[in-house]
């Protein structure tokens, strides 16, 4: 075969990847942004009137987070097993639709017990999205393409977290008491609207697998199978080995346990970053300012994470793109452990921690998708297992490591005394 013969094939593949980006990557990015927005909206609502309106105590707020994670971790592995055997273009949008209805329910709650029930069900509905979309990206993209796309996926997650504070601030300024609804309730309704758009987009544009995706032409199907080392990923249905046999193979994988422990430890450390808005409010800032203070932290993390993902693909090296930013994250954690005033010191520590640790998430998941296993169902199970164990950490860390106690800091007390 001559170079001239190869060139059109390269152009066809590039066009195929661009088309894939417009559908799969766009859904993944938009979906992770919405997921992060929904995950952050409880904290934003809590500091924006929900605490007072529903008379929520700090312990009750902590339990809301725990119940969400209980639902989340209990469904992750079953969800990814179902995804490996179902049509992703139906299964993932179906989860989004349930997610949308539950978010609307959050706008209507009038008691703490109702929030408990909805948060648990939200955990069940959201459990399948992130491990499912990571699995799907790993199915369609090659190793040279995956790192930067994982970075873009996590960038949108950080964007969603940052937008939560901005959306809540806007709702407080413009929609508070409109039609008798509080600003924090309008935020949940806005999130539900965005989630419904995501579900529609996924049902119409999300790919399934090479031989079952209706919008791929014959040449694109051939390219997709060739990029997957000549294997049709739907051959999983032809396998006769039992799920228990596959589970035994997975549990004997030497790479699985380091990734599980590392992924869980990373998310335990990242938990401290999620209470920035609450720390700001407890330090004496008003609700609007406390929400907006989370945005610069998020934007910095987004930029650093994106750069780290691109560098890891460029160098084709994952380890150094983990160790270097993790060192900065460790420095931030050490600064946060002092937890002393002034608030500016804490704010800097939050930013260093979030940027350092947050920028490693896409690289960890990319590396895991590449080396744990090539079997499609085992890879789906391993990614779900990683997320399940990280979720298990969140059943106790909000109560032990990052509890919301409702106690005022010295600075908040001083401000109140000055006003008096």
UniProtKB/TrEMBL annotation:
Keywords: Membrane, Transmembrane, Transmembrane helix, Transport. GO terms for molecular function: transmembrane transporter activity. It comes from the Eukaryota. PROSITE patterns: MFS. It is a multi-pass membrane protein. Belongs to the major facilitator superfamily. Allantoate permease family. It comes from Absidia repens. It holds the Pfam family MFS_1. One of its GO terms (cellular component) is membrane. The keyword Manganese does not apply. It is found in: Membrane. The chain crosses the membrane at residues 63-83, 90-110, 116-140, 152-172, 184-206, 255-280, 292-312, 319-339, 345-368, 380-402. This is Major facilitator superfamily domain-containing protein. InterPro entries: MFS, MFS_dom, MFS_trans_sf. Residues 24-420 form the Major facilitator superfamily (MFS) profile domain.
């Amino acid at each position: 075969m001559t170079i001239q013969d190869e060139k059109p094939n390269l152009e066809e593949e590039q066009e195929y990847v661009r088309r894939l980006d417009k559908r799969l990557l766009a859904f993944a990015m938009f979906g992770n942004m919405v997921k992060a927005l929904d995950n952050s909206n409880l904290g934003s609502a809590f500091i924006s009137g929900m605490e007072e309106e529903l008379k929520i105590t700090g312990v009750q707020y902590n339990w809301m987070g725990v119940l969400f994670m209980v639902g989340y971790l209990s469904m992750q592995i079953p969800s990814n097993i179902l995804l490996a055997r179902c049509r992703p273009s139906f299964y993932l949008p179906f989860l989004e639709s349930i997610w949308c209805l539950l978010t609307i329910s959050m706008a209507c709650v009038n008691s703490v017990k109702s929030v408990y029930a909805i948060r648990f069900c939200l955990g069940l509905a959201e459990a399948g999205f992130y491990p499912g979309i990571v699995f799907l990206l790993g199915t369609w993209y090659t190793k040279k393409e995956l790192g930067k796309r994982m970075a873009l996926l996590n960038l949108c997650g950080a964007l969603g977290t940052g937008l939560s504070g901005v959306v809540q601030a806007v709702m407080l300024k413009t929609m508070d008491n409109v039609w008798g609804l509080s600003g924090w309730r309008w935020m949940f309704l806005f999130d539900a609207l965005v989630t419904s758009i995501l579900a529609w987009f996924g049902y119409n544009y999300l790919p399934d697998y090479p031989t079952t995706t209706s919008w791929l032409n014959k040449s694109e199907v051939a390219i997709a199978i060739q990029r997957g080392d000549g294997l049709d990923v739907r051959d999983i249905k032809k396998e006769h080995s039992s799920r228990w046999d596959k589970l035994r193979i997975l549990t004997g994988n030497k790479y699985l346990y380091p990734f599980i422990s590392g992924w869980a430890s990373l998310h335990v450390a990242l938990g401290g970053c999620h209470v920035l808005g609450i720390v700001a409010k407890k330090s004496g800032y008003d609700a609007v300012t406390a929400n907006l203070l989370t945005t610069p932290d998020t934007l910095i993390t987004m930029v650093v994470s994106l750069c780290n993902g691109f560098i890891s693909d460029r160098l084709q090296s994952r380890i150094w793109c983990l160790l270097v930013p993790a060192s900065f994250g460790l420095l931030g954690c050490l600064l946060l452990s002092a937890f002393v005033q002034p608030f500016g010191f804490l704010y800097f520590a939050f930013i260093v921690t979030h940027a350092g640790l947050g920028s490693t998430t896409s690289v960890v998941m990319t590396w895991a998708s590449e080396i744990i296993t090539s079997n499609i169902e085992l890879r789906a199970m391993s990614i779900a297992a990683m997320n399940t164990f990280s979720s298990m950490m969140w059943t106790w860390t909000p109560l032990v490591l990052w509890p919301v106690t409702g106690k005022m800091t010295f600075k908040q007390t001083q401000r109140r005394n000055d006003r008096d």
